[in-house]
Amino acid sequence: MLTMTLSPDLEAKEAAFGPDAIDADGGCALNKRLRAAAPRLLQAREHLFFEGDHKDCIYQVERGAVCLYKTLPDGRRQIVDFAYPGDFIGLGSPEEHVFSAQAITLTRLRCLSASLLDEVARHDPQVCMMLYRALSDQLFAARDLLLTVGQRSATERLAAFLMALSRRNERNFVDPMRIVLPMTRADIADFLSLTIETVSRSFTKLRQSGIIDLMQSSFVIVRNRQTLEQLAAGEAREFK
Amino acid sequence: MLTMTLSPDLEAKEAAFGPDAIDADGGCALNKRLRAAAPRLLQAREHLFFEGDHKDCIYQVERGAVCLYKTLPDGRRQIVDFAYPGDFIGLGSPEEHVFSAQAITLTRLRCLSASLLDEVARHDPQVCMMLYRALSDQLFAARDLLLTVGQRSATERLAAFLMALSRRNERNFVDPMRIVLPMTRADIADFLSLTIETVSRSFTKLRQSGIIDLMQSSFVIVRNRQTLEQLAAGEAREFK
DNA sequence: CGAGTCGTTGATTCTTTTCAAAGCCCGTGG
DNA sequence: CCACGGGCTTTGAAAAGAATCAACGACTCG
Lengths: 240, 240
Description:
By secondary structure, chain A is an alpha+beta fold. The first copy, chain A, has eight helices and eleven strands. Chain A starts with 7 loop residues before the first helix and ends in a 7-residue tail after the last helix. At the A-B interface, strand 5, helix 3 and helix 4 of A face strand 5, helix 3 and helix 4 of B. The first copy, chain A, binds a DNA duplex through helix 7.
């Protein structure tokens, strides 16, 4: 499906300094450990863990994508984040996981013992700082999503979502005008706090406005990035 | 208005071990530093900083309350968190603040040089871990709010908000059945992603159902905590 | 006491949801 | 190779919840 690669950050680092130079910079005792850590393969739709499960591992995504979500007792679901290659899953939270994690596509992860990681972080400020930064990124993302879900219209939300994926591509040296969506409409809906119907209608609206093209339902071509960006930012007068 | 006290955590610690014992446990080199740090007083509605401002300080609230918010270019505002006594403001984010911070009531804070804090954290794993935990709490809160804003109805959102304040009281050994709201309806609206009118109508609904009483608009008495809790959890059949 | 801010309530409008049905894509099996 | 079946997506019509627009009331501060 999606041609996922290893974390581009790590790859770039290795390319620049060679595999040995990595230990020279922050948090890379951890990277070494990660590469040695037990790998795990998850099929699409397979759960990594559920909310409330005992937290024995922290994970880092190597390939694929995982959605992190919370649910209400009656089944309403809010996806709070998508984890892509390089991202950590399960940082911060205490003894138990405070959200569920489910693979969206075939996914490969590295598993790190939570207690061991805690031990390492407690003694190695570099590792601690690295985790701190990762957590800080997740906080930023969560608050950003909060702004999106709380204040933007349906079409703006979808635009913001697509722009985020486009920018992600850019950072990873992938064509930002071609976006592959590994997740279903239901996943997008639960991420943006909409229904699948509204997500679908918003896609149609963007397509009819000439802002995007839909090749298949999971493959988007960005035709007018500037307008998409303005829509996402909430700067565009809404149009039919 | 609100009879705010110093961080109950710190107070409890001091009460249990005396002021000198504090250094024995995690992150308290920081606590010492904090008590020595420059205090700052903010009037209600006064801004601490704006999104995009250079981040030279991290703050800890001593008294009062601060709202942290993000805005869209056209003025739509999303409050992403309220900071109460003991809470840190400005953790994580990079060189620039990524949200604005405005005092809700008369507020007293301690200011810590961001670079100094960074320096300390880099060498002291205990401090680093303490900040890590604080950040982790904020991430949890943000995702929780995301679930609230994304999936709950207007009345459920308000119920969740009131329950959170009630539980906060409980943790601080304050009567959980009496809730003082230091913020305006507009603040609550921007926090819960509703309009002031809808917030007001939801208060009325809760009052008419006998779940709460409104003494003044900023003083709530919880009459039926169980129902409030069920509503907040999304377990209650919606009622008029 | 008057001005102004903040909060409540009512009527109407609008966006999104809900309910319903049809279309499309893909894998399976004849 | 093509027909069949099931899941996912799209589209349409009706309904619901919250927003908007408008006015009034309450409390606060000069």
